[in-house]
Design brief:
Layout: H1 3-65, H2 83-89, H3 92-123, H4 130-142, H5 145-155, H6 162-169, H7 183-192, H8 196-207, H9 211-219, H10 224-252, H11 256-260, H12 279-289, H13 293-317
Helix pairs in contact: 1-13, 2-13, 3-7, 3-8, 3-10, 3-12, 4-8, 8-10, 9-10, 10-13, 12-13
Length: 332
């Protein structure tokens, strides 16, 4: 056996052992990856099941109802195709209520964002008992909508409300806050009552703004307002975009404050002030007051499509003014 043959024979077991080691190391890595995948699907399975059963299935069922005259009780229903959609296109009440909902969103969303951002700026300063102030300002957002609606109803009641009590104490006449035209203002105040949610999100965004940029602007002679407008707000633009989109969706679907503060407690939905008769109130009346499940389902599907369009338009028209630290469309 030559020297080269001896070296080849000596290297063969070593390379074989090395390959075997790679294969043996590969098996645990593969099983570990499989375990991670199983754990992942196990943890997300409750959400997936809930999403399918509580979102997809009801949406598909509502879509099917929108093509029928089903009233929820009678078996004598029929398929009408696009009849419900044609009816709502010619229904002036539907479009009037949609216009009120859009106006409410156009007013309440900017006010809520400005109020939440202003509170976030205040509690972001190094003041004493800062944590206490943050807690107190966020506390109204924890109150359930039903409780907040009842509280505002009692607060602005024309006969026994505390607001009119203060007015009459100073010699002013009592005001019908829950009737037109004041009902819309009470509704906006009810929404602003929960501005603590926006405050918390804005506060997290403020704390993520690099202090070096703010300090550099001050060194260059920029005022506090100029620093806030030129540095803080652009860096907060993704947060503001998120609040705008979610705020529009939530405001268009607002229904609980209107239902809890009607003009009377015996007339049902017909006593809701005209200024507060928004799209969701119209949907609610079609469902539960008139029993028109098919027509109400068509109304909801139209609202779903309109919300998708509004969200797409918001993203389109804000693409040039939203600043991202990392390009969201960058390919990895």
């Amino acid at each position: 056996m030559t020297v080269d043959q001896m070296s080849t024979a000596a290297d063969r077991p070593r390379s074989t052992a090395s390959a075997g080691g790679i294969r043996s190391a590969g098996r645990p890595r593969s099983s570990m990856t499989a375990r991670k995948h199983r754990a992942f699907y196990m943890f997300v399975s409750p959400w997936i099941v809930g999403f399918l059963l509580l979102t997809i299935v009801p949406m598909v069922y509502a879509l099917w109802l929108s093509f029928t005259t089903f009233d929820g009780i009678s078996p004598n229903w029929r398929y009408v195709g696009l009849g419900n959609y044609r009816e709502l296109m010619n229904d002036s009440t539907t479009w009037d209520s949609l216009g009120r909902a859009g106006l409410f969103a156009a007013v309440s969303v900017p006010l809520s964002i400005v109020a939440g951002l202003g509170l976030a700026v205040l509690v972001n300063r190094p003041i004493k008992a800062r944590g206490l102030f943050r807690t107190l300002l966020y506390l109204p957002a924890v109150v359930p909508p039903v409780g907040a609606g009842i509280a505002f109803k009692n607060l602005f009641d024309q006969n026994a409300g505390a607001t009119n009590g203060v007015l009459t104490f100073f010699g002013f006449d009592a005001v019908g806050w829950l009737a037109d035209p004041y009902a819309r203002y009470v509704l906006i105040m009810t929404v602003l009552w929960g501005a603590g949610n926006i405050m918390i999100i804005s506060l997290a965004g403020l704390q993520d703004v690099p202090r070096e940029l703010q300090e550099a602007a001050r060194i260059d002679g920029a005022s506090s307002w100029r620093t806030f407008r030129s540095i803080t707000v652009p860096l907060l633009s993704p947060v503001l975009l998120f609040q705008t989109v979610t705020g529009v969706i939530a405001s268009v679907q607002t229904i609980m404050p209107m239902l809890l503060a009607p003009l009377a407690t015996t007339g049902g939905l017909t006593t809701v002030p005209q200024s507060n008769y928004t799209y969701m109130i119209h949907v609610f009346s079609q469902y539960f007051a008139l029993g028109r499940y098919g027509y109400a389902s068509a109304l909801l599907w139209v609202l779903f499509v309109l919300i998708l369009i509004a969200t797409g338009l918001i993203f389109k028209f804000t693409s040039g003014v939203v600043f991202y630290n990392v390009d969201p469309e960058a390919k990895k």
